[in-house]
């Protein structure tokens, strides 16, 4: 088609019958979608709803070539992708199928592709949404250059139970922080134009309620009321939709007894009806056919029809849509309009992601898009801004006068565990904590590195009936690396000990639930023996979840919570230890005293008997460290909160005077919490985070920090999805963390 001709026709539906119109990028996306849809056979339509896993290698992937030629493959979810192979398959779809509809290649890029950043739970501790946007901008560039068009991120689930391994992938327990961080990630992935060669389509997941699984056991059911759904679990998804996310993944769990993949209320009434989302929904892996063991669907045909009718457009992996929906339409159990609408949504995203106009990737140039020096510097910055200082008796930052430092523990010189769950394309970090520290310590300080024990102990494992490997509770763990005596000797000889301990990355992320929030293998014994030496111990905990480590909290002189920090770990942590950078991170998820308390989160209701309902056999029901907690190398003083009344169209404001009372420059994350005292719509949490600001002050410097008490700050979502704010009394805290400080009353 001649371009000049196209431009002379107004961008409307007029040309919709011209056969190759959809191939021409001068036309509006909606016109191209309709033009293409009109030309598709039923098999081609169902092909667009079919996402396949091509297997472990090129040969396996080739088994779908005949189907691809018939237009039967919409998407590959493929960890083994490389640009040449991707182009090879794409050429078959584009050049050998009748309509040439490109494949969209999807992949789990969660906290980085090659440049691995800290896990998202850690990144959220920065309380800096822009940092997450910058990190995902790098991930988008590295992914797209390699041929990944679509990433299954960000994860908008709310983390309330640390036993659930997937808290690692979330932005923590607070819906407000999570909404900001997830919207920022969408912007990072997609930019202003997801079709650009350095951007990808994003996918909000897992919609919805996946994190509320009973007992923290992955893939379970979730009991969530509409009130909690609206105010806790949905806000981050809504923010992601508003930020322009092109797709959403429905989740494995059930909500209100209905599997999320077939939940008409959440997928259609809320998502399309209320939020006007016009991207597509993909199921999670086999979630369509898993409705059979759930006891919801009779067979694959029943499952496929239930899912698409509820609003789930694409079927990940199970092939139930491709196998059964044509018959469901023929027998009039399913309308053609429902199928067409799902296809329309998928095609729309393929156009928006630029796949029709630029279906191939540059096979020669992709390496230059990866791990640029600025990306590595950002990874380092992210570590320093995500690592939370939980305790410091004054040993940190480390003195430049130290002569001997011992680095003890299985994560001190580790190249791979520090990368975390979902490692993208990165399997090894050249820089370890040991190398980073060596680089940062004064040249005449001697660093002794002793592993002491393994992070895990293989002999203590047993295989369950389903093939999964779990610890054998009755076996005595054996550990070929066990050298507690050597660790003790190194500690005796050192001025300061740095302990690097935690949990294995394989026990976090998907299918990584844990019953106990402890150090694994012999690490507790190692810690106890080293701490007993009596030298100051600085402990760095590497973990995908909050662990309950009373001995570590009590017997360390200082504790950093580093999460799973990624490839910037060595330098980023060293920066904090020696004081090149002062810590500024705050917990995005509360750290319990003991697993017996979980689920535990700061935004609970006051109840009718506040302070009662204690466990008879536990000293406190408080978390050890609440959400928002984190120290730095200086001290800040907060004045009482003052309320400045509303005036001249400006809302009232809450103000504190903040003073740096310490000896160093520092950044304080000042946090605004509100609590509504009487809400007839439903009980609200005692405290809800509704604002935060990073404030940098020099020693002795002071400043006023103001937060507007606007409608958005005070409001909530009612059961019908309306944003509301009530007249009445509120409590307002401006504080360094949740559950801290004295509130003032405010009447709206
Ligand atoms: C299952 C996981 O739940 C989901 O997060 C992931 O995106 C898909 N598998 C694809 O790998």
Strands, helices and their partners?
Layout: H1 3-8, H2 29-39, H3 42-47, E1 50-52, H4 58-61, H5 65-69, E2 75-77, H6 83-96, E3 104-107, H7 120-124, H8 129-146, E4 150-151, H9 175-190, E5 203-207, H10 226-233, H11 235-242, E6 247-250, E7 254-255, E8 258-259, H12 264-274, E9 280-282, H13 291-294, H14 300-310, E10 315-316, H15 320-330, H16 336-352, H17 373-386, E11 388-392, E12 404-408, H18 433-440, E13 446-450, E14 461-463, E15 469-471, H19 484-492, E16 496-502, H20 523-532, E17 537-542, H21 550-555, E18 558-561, H22 569-578, E19 636-638, E20 642-644, E21 653-660, E22 666-676, E23 688-697, E24 702-708, H23 711-714, E25 716-717, E26 723-724, E27 729-735, E28 744-747
Parallel strand pairs: 1-2, 1-10, 2-3, 3-4, 5-6, 6-9, 12-13, 12-16, 16-17, 17-18
Antiparallel strand pairs: 7-8, 11-18, 14-15, 19-21, 20-21, 21-24, 22-23, 22-27, 25-26, 27-28
1-deoxynojirimycin is lined by residues 77, 108, 152, 205, 284-285, 510.
